[in-house]
């Protein structure tokens, strides 16, 4: 029998209400001890909540969810206490003294839900993302995943793979005879190709999904003193970067998270690109370049409106050119101008960036939103490709379909996932 786990599932104290959640075999005993009797399942019940010695700790609402139809699949209870530090400390102290009870580890409630088959791995990931979501697009995407959209899709794919394999088995049974049904193998070929195309569509949408989840990366590049740090500050509306008129002030990378129209954007300030400078600055420049290689967009800043050098263009990352310090010079043609001394020009730039980000990340929330999911799905696609060759022996086709099915099994956590579980659940908060 497993331990009964408990945790403060609501946020920092003091708070209006504090929710303490429990899951495990001792839940009934705890509820009876504290409230005197077991309340009706799933109905909020007001009760005096007592410690083991009968002393009243608080008066609060109590919810009891009998397993297996609970979040974790075990008996679960929620105590809604007043969110005072002493109240919560007294209640957690009472629970900790009971035999078979211990504090939950990060993500342990969700892990139990997964292990008891209440949710699959993509739903667990969706729940983690939902709690971490900071922007509207992240919330929508996480909610879709947590609601089982990916699980349903993967289950549909797996069922169809199994059907296809059944067809091939039938084919193999016929193979001693002359009348191997050609229609059947044609049908199987079409079925495989369709599955592969659907998965490929989700994979390519997933590039967007990963950006929605992790933030679109915008790297600010330009010569020293171009006004990069000033603009990053102005866009973020707070002082994040050190601004001076000594060239080479920004020696490391500075990241700012922005919410642009509901999309997360990671704005990266870098050291100016130029030759020379001291060793530390040179390292800053190297990091800036390296970061730009993997960026989604480069903002190239130059106070004269000059184009970026060839090696920046050669990165193959889209570049938005900006002429900075527009308050100092006249109007420039072609290149967009901005000045941190002119809030309207900064707001215009924010609008422009927001439209750019929305056009790249907008649309229905993709299913794929992390590298792990992408890896599993890519493996399934690769296996299907190997099953598509002309005139392949039926055994080879069947084996590739099995591999594709295994890849989907790893995606949803049905098989072979012990090593990834730790890394997924440890990123949750305690009490989830
Ligand atoms: N007049 C004016 N000065 C600016 C503007 N943006 C930056 N500066 C000045 O240019 C200098 C260099 O700015 P900084 O942001 O540190 O440039 P970086 O080296 O590219 O990060 C500082 O003295 C800033 O005050 C601007 O829009 N107008
Ligand atoms: Mg700087």
Q: For this structure, what is the CATH class of the largest domain? A: Alpha Beta
Q: Write the CATH fold name of the largest domain.
A: Rossmann fold
Q: Overall 3D geometry?
A: flat
Q: Tell me about the biggest sheet?
A: 6 strands, mixed
Distance between the termini: 21 Å
**Beta-strand content bin:** 15-25%
Ligand names: guanosine-5'-diphosphate, magnesium ion
Mean pLDDT: 90
In the residues, how many domains can be counted? 3
**How many strands?**
12
Low-confidence regions: none
What does this structure look like?
β8 and β9 form a beta hairpin. The chain folds into three domains: 101 residues, Probable tRNA modification gtpase trme, domain 1 (Gyrase A, domain 2, 2-Layer Sandwich); 146 residues, Four Helix Bundle (Hemerythrin (Met), subunit A) (Up-down Bundle); 147 residues, P-loop containing nucleotide triphosphate hydrolases (Rossmann fold). It has a six-stranded mixed sheet with strand order 3-4-5-2-1-6. Strands 8-9-7-10-11-12 form a six-stranded mixed sheet, sandwiched between helices. The longest helix has 33 residues. α12 packs antiparallel against α13. It has 432 residues and is an alpha/beta fold. Helices cover 47% and strands 17% of the residues. The protein has 14 helices and twelve strands. Magnesium ion binds next to α8.
């Amino acid at each position: 029998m497993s331990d009964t786990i408990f945790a403060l599932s609501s946020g920092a104290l003091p708070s209006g209400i504090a929710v303490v959640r429990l899951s495990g075999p001792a839940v009934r005993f705890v509820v009876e001890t504290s409230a005197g009797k077991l309340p009706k399942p799933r109905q909020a019940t007001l009760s005096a909540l007592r410690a083991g010695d009968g002393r009243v700790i608080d008066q609060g609402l109590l919810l009891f969810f009998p397993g297996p139809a609970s979040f974790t699949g075990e008996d679960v209870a929620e105590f809604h206490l007043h969110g005072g530090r002493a109240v919560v400390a007294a209640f957690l102290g009472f629970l900790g003294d009971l035999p078979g009870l211990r504090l939950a580890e990060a993500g342990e409630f969700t892990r139990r839900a997964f292990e008891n088959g209440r949710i699959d791995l993509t739903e667990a990931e969706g729940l983690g993302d939902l709690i971490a979501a900071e922007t509207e697009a992240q919330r929508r995407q996480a909610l879709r995943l947590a609601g089982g959209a990916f699980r349903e899709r993967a289950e549909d794919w797996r069922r169809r793979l199994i059907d296809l394999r059944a067809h091939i088995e039938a084919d193999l049974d016929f193979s001693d005879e002359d009348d191997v049904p050609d229609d059947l193998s044609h049908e199987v070929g079409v079925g495989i190709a369709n599955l592969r195309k659907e998965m490929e569509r989700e994979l390519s949408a997933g590039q967007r999904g990963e950006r929605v989840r992790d933030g679109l990366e915008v790297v600010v590049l330009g010569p020293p003193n171009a006004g990069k740090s000033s603009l990053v500050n102005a866009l973020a509306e707070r002082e994040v970067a050190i601004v001076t008129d000594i060239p080479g002030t920004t020696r490391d990378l500075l990241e700012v998270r922005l919410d642009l129209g509901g999309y997360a954007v990671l704005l990266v300030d870098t050291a100016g690109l130029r030759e020379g400078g001291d060793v530390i600055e040179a390292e800053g420049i190297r990091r800036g370049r390296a970061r730009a290689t993997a960026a989604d967009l480069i903002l190239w800043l130059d106070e004269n409106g000059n184009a970026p050098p060839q090696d920046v263009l050669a990165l193959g990352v889209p570049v938005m050119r900006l002429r900075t310090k527009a308050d100092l010079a006249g109007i420039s043609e072609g290149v967009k101008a901005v000045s941190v001394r002119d809030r309207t020009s900064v707001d215009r730039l924010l609008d422009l960036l927001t439209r750019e980000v929305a056009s790249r990340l907008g649309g229905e929330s993709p299913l794929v939103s992390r590298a792990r999911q992408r890896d599993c799905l890519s493996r399934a696609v690769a296996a299907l490709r190997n099953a598509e060759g002309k005139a392949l022996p039926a055994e080879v086709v069947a084996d590739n379909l099995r591999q594709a099915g295994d890849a989907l099994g790893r995606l949803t956590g049905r098989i072979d996932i012990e090593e990834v579980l730790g890394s997924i659940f440890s990123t949750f908060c305690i009490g989830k």
